[in-house]
Amino acid sequence: MGTCLTLFNPAGMGADWRSLVPGDEQTRRVYRERDRLQYDAEGATISAMDTDKFYCGTMATVTFAGDVTPCSVIRKGVGNIRVTPFAQIVEEHLGTLIHDSLHDVRTMPSPCNRCDDNEHCWGCWASAYHSGAGADGPDPKCWVMNDVTGQERS
Fold first, then answer.
1. What's the pTM?
2. Residues 130-149: pLDDT tens digits?
3. Alpha-carbon gap, residue 138 to 125, rounded angstroms
4. Distance (Å, rounded) from C-alpha 81 to C-alpha 74?
């Protein structure tokens, strides 16, 4: 059985639970152990989340309230299907929904633009969004990014 790892984003009703967010070293250990057990490999398969940029860059979410968002964890919508047809929302906001500017490594935020994993990974944009960096900002929970910069996130 495969395991998919996702990180906790303390937002909304979970905002008071920031103490549950693991640090870089804890996250690194969990991913390496999962990789050892599941893939018989060392290192990270994908750093912050177990979805790659081909998944996040090609999908949209419709929330229970009808809001169309670029991610199931980002609740700020670009339109609502109860007001505007889904096809029209996608046509008008496609770039936002698929993080269009991030498909080119040269327009990714630093240090993501120089990460060895950026061919398939671009971090978790929900984590970036909920940290205040915006949905196209660097993922503050990416321990690989923090290894590149030499900074541990708090």
1. 0.67
2. 888 887 888 887 777 666 55
3. 7
4. 17
